[in-house]
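Allow me, if you will, to draw on your knowledge of protein folds for a short while. I have a record of one protein: its chain in single-letter code and its fold written as discrete structure tokens. I remain grateful for any guidance, and I place the record below:
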Amino acid sequence: MKKKRSLIILSIMLVVAIFSMSSCYLIDFSFGGTEDYLTKSEVEQMINNNMGENVTVEGGNNYNVTIDGVSQDNAAAGKALLSAVSIRCTFKTTTYGTSYQPGATASREKTSAGSGVIYKLDKNSGDAYIITNYHVVYYSQSNTENGISDNISVYLYGQESGEYAIPATYVGGSMNYDLAVLKVDGSKIIAESNVAEVTFADSNNVAVLDQAIAVGNPEALGISATLGYINVDSEYIQMEGADGVTAIQIRVMRMDTAVNSGNSGGGLFNNRGELIGIVNAKLTSSENMSYAIPSNFVKYVTENILHYCDGTDKENVYRCYLGITVQASRLYTEYDEASGKLHKREDVGVISVADGSLAKGFVEVGDIINSITVDGVTYDVNRMYIVTDSMLNARVDSVVVINVTRDGESVDVEIRIAESSVAAIK
């Protein structure tokens, strides 16, 4: 039986340090992962039976493009499969007594299944980094200190059998962002395979009715693919975190691509086989209404984790806070004649600057933010979320240049990131 949780879709005013919520309604939702934890033998039987040899694509094919006899959808799915992995996590748990047996203890192993994508790869050494959801590798009742599984295995497409299990270790992650990074060291299976790193698309360019191919491990039956379309390019959902207690808010894309338990952590791809998101949730009260974390945000969080956590004793994401609050001062759309896509746009205005913050004395109330440049990389600010997303790329001593329109003139303000402004996002 699948567990039900609550989901609140919010119309929000995005701020750099604070979220203000309004106009919400309650619906039922569940993670896209396997949160009904299976016994170890049940998952081993599924893996060894290997139900994932063939790719199944569901969805209408009325608009498929065929090039030299090969469907564009098939080619996209084939490219996506090169970077796809299924994931199995085993958790050891201990219960201490009951009303009938107060002094008794019992130990048990529970196993969850999910999905992931290969982010970085060294074929010569067999090393790889893998992106997945935090809730795939975390269990609140685990005996481990941080709740993360200490027995994680990944499987490549076409090798979803117990003998091809590849051990992986946890690098770091964030429950609030529902993302985690795993590491594989010296795998002969990877070195001898034809797997490839995932190719990222710019999720800021994703538009309504773009194709969305989900590749994952539904119901722990092996890697498969489903086909659908983007319905909403960006919105916020509030849901229960992996610990079953914390309320978390995540920016996602909504799609009608079919996903099920076990798809969590798997890639959402466009019709060129490029990653546009990581699947993390679905609605249980509506048919084929599911969600994915946008690829730009995924990449920023992943690089942040690798910077702060790989080879250290840290495990969290660290984000810089400028201390400004922003809101959309104008909403409009832009039509791209070349692609035929219509994109939402916003003028992002500053409505407050916190005393003692990095931005105090540099940014002013009434400024319209045009762009943010972090260590030489410029992010055009035409949606509010770009302000907070870009700060994931700022490190201690990074130079941030904010271009604003002030009193009708373009002004650049330069801020150097101080350690006191960087906080962990657990």
Observations:
- The radius of gyration is 22 Å.
